[in-house]
Amino acid sequence: PNPATTTLNIETQNDNEKTISVTDMIGQEVMKINSNEQLISLQITYLPAGTYFITIIENKGVSTHQFIKK
């Protein structure tokens, strides 16, 4: 759900290799993982409340999404 409090679930369309980056509003990267899973759960408990961006980089392109941490 958005806003999220403890866990952020990301579902992608395939199980290809991808890099997922989470940045805050000023562009500072606060988390980065590599995965080949289709469903990814990010633990965000330690992040301060605020607005963040998730960037998913795959071989077919890049997508960016916004979420709110409560």
Would you mind describing this structure in some detail?
The chain is mainly β and about 70 residues long. The protein has no helices and six strands. The chain has strands at about 5-10, 20-25, 30-35, 40-45, 50-60, 60-70. The chain is globular. Strand 2 (about 20-25) and strand 3 (about 30-35) form a beta hairpin. The relative contact order is 0.35. It has a four-stranded antiparallel sheet, with no helix packed on it. The model has no long low-confidence stretch (mean pLDDT about 95). The N and C termini lie close together (about 10 Å).
Provide the descriptors you would attach to this structure in a database record:
single chain, 70 residues, mainly beta, two-stranded antiparallel ribbon, 6 strands, 0% helix, 60% strand, globular
Task: Give a quick summary of the entry.
The protein has about 70 residues and is mainly β. The protein is built from no helices and six strands. Strand 5 and strand 6 form a beta hairpin.
Secondary-structure topology with pairs:
Blueprint: E1 7-11, E2 18-24, E3 29-35, E4 39-43, E5 50-58, E6 61-69
Antiparallel strand pairs: 1-4, 2-3, 2-5, 5-6
What's the gyration radius in Å?
Answer: 12 Å
Largest sheet: 4 strands, antiparallel
**Share in helix:** under 10%
- Helix segment count? 0
Order of helices and strands: EEEEEE
- The fraction of residues in strands falls at over 45%
Q: Helix- and strand-based class?
A: mainly beta
How many strand elements? 6
Q: Taking strands numbered 1, 2, ... along the chain, how are they ordered across the largest sheet?
A: 3-2-5-6
Shape from CA axes? globular
- Low-confidence stretches are none
Q: pLDDT average, as an integer?
A: 94
Q: Note the gap between the termini.
A: 11 Å
